[in-house]
Amino acid sequence: CSYQQMDALKPDGSLSAYVQQCIVDSGGYGDTDGLNTILKRETRLKYNQSIYAVPLVAVNGFLIHGNIDCEPPVTAATCEVLAAICAGFVDGTQPDVCYVTPAPTVANCTQA
Known about the structure:
Layout (H helix, E strand, L loop, with lengths): L1 H8 L4 H12 L11 H12 L7 E4 L2 E4 L14 H8 L18 H5 L2
Antiparallel strand pairs: 1-2
């Protein structure tokens, strides 16, 4: 599927051919292929630089990783990052955005 997408971008097949050759040159990706040098280098970098997951957000000392995008309508119930921020407040002191359904977004803030 990804090669089809690449070929849609570059109908001459040059992009998918480049990627396929890069995979072969770096050692492949199958169980019977050799050691993938790019994957090995990136894995080593991950451990040496203490990279756990990208993207990563720290909120109140807790790490939230994975997809941190919040699709509209944004609410504390549907947005893990907003929920974590709101959870850091003592009950009754949360800002209004923690109670609004949906929470303000750039789209609906500029419409006002």
